[in-house]
Amino acid sequence: MEGNNADWDNETVSQFSTTNVMIKRDHLKYQYYGPEMPEVLFDLKRNPEETINFMDDPKYAQIIAAFRQRLAELGHGPDADPNYVNAGYGSDKHARKPR
């Protein structure tokens, strides 16, 4: 691809099942597995093996808040946007209905 990509977000989002969401920004990877499981935050620079969960590290508090806000914008989590409509994959309650 050619062109100016300076304004692009460096974000990857993956949804699997109906509640599991992964959001990756730069070297940080956040995972939400629904209300019954703990959230996970990996710092791929500090721990590329993804064996350390940084959710309880106070240095990441603002980053975690931003990931949780993005999760809600995507229609997931306790503060989910009820008006969010995804692309229609799977049987998610937020999926577009077929025409």
Describe this structure as you would to a colleague.
This protein is an alpha+beta fold and about 100 residues long. It has a domain at about 10-75: Arylsulfatase, C-terminal domain, CATH 3.30.1120. About 15% of the residues lie in helices and about 20% in strands. The protein is built from 1 helix and 4 strands. The protein has one helix at about 60-75, and strands at about 10-15, 20-25, 30, 40-45. The protein has a 4-stranded antiparallel β-sheet, with helices on one face. Strand 3 (about 30) and strand 4 form a beta hairpin. The longest helix is centred in the C-terminal third of the chain and has 13 residues, at about 60-75. The chain is globular, with a radius of gyration of 15 Å.
What's the quick description here?
This protein is an alpha+beta fold. The protein has one helix spanning 61-73, and strands at 11-16, 20-25, 28-32, 40-43.
- How many helices does DSSP assign? 1
CATH class call of the domain at 11-73: Alpha Beta
Overall strand count? 4
Q: Whole-number average pLDDT?
A: 85
- Please give the share of residues in helix: 10-25%
CATH level 3 topology of the domain at 11-73: Arylsulfatase, C-terminal domain
Query: Helix/strand-derived class?
Result: alpha+beta
Q: Give the C-alpha Rg.
A: 15 Å
Q: Span from first to last CA?
A: 34 Å
The main sheet orders its strands as 1-2-3-4
Query: What shape does the CA trace take?
Result: globular
